[in-house]
Amino acid sequence: MPKKEGNLHAGHRSRVKEEFLRRGLDSFPEHRVLELLLFYAIPQGDTNELAHRLIERFGSLAGVLDASVEDLCTVSGVGEHTALLLRMIPGLCGRYVASRSSVSDIVDCSARVREVLEPYFFGARNEMVYLLCLDGKRKVLGVRKITEGSINAAEVTTRRITEEAVSLRASAVILAHNHISGLAIPSNEDCATTRYLKQVLEPIGIELLDHVVFCDDDMVSMKDSMVI
Asked: Disulfide check for 184: which of 66, 108, 178, 215 has CB 3.0–4.6 Å away?
């Protein structure tokens, strides 16, 4: 007697899961990674075809995970539940990486700045500004989100930065923001804002050590670039 379709899918899912446990995701092509993830949003049925449709629609696994809930739902077979799961993955990955960074670590070079701050921009679709607050020994006191949008809202940004730094009793801070596209090169406005902020913080005993700009997998330090 031929196997029922449901049993065929169940057997396929078991094989995919077993392959993941044996070999990890590195051996999986992008559509297979997505297929495995979709198992947990769609309890029954063939998710392989849906994975192919999604990658065809958005170009890559990254494109799928960066797509909005609304755009994901335009693909046949994707409901709101599935779209929400996919949309959550980039933020979840960023939180995972951030949680592995100990807040007691000393930040004493650009490489450490990148290691601590890069997870906060993982999968970002908007420009965001974060403040890394340090004590006198350059130990991390905390990372605070200042704003989401343009860094050039100078009055609001400067006031918020000052409040957050003072609340954590920081002796030094590092400002970070991201560019959504292009290069991680500070603009003229970024440089002007940095110099202004440095002047504002100095009289209250807080040193602006650096301002870093992230874009995709790159980071530029204004301190290393001799901007400040």
From this structure: 215
CB 90 within 8 A of CB 123: yes
In terms of Cβ atoms closer than 10 Å to its own Cβ (0-12, 13-18, 19+), residue 80 is exposed
**3-class state of residue 153 by DSSP:** coil
State the DSSP string of 7-51.
Answer: HHHHHHHHHHHHHHHHH-GGGS-HHHHHHHHHTTT-SSS--HHHH
Condensed to tens digits (0 to 9), the pLDDT of residues 31-43 reads 999 999 999 999 8
Q: Is the dihedral of CA 182, 187, 189, 194 positive or negative?
A: positive
Q: What residues contact residue 93 under an 8 Å CB cut-off, 6+ apart?
A: 122, 123
- Please give the average per-residue pLDDT across 59-68, as a whole number: 93
Do residues 170 and 201 touch, judged by C-beta distance below 8 A?
no
Stretch 192-220: mean pLDDT, rounded? 93
In 3D space, the residue among 42, 34, 3 whose CA is nearest the CA of residue 16 turns out to be 34
Strand pairing class (207-215; 172-178): parallel
Structure confidence at residue 126 (pLDDT): 84
The string of pLDDT tens digits covering residues 78-91 is 999 999 999 999 88
Name the pTM for this structure.
Answer: 0.62
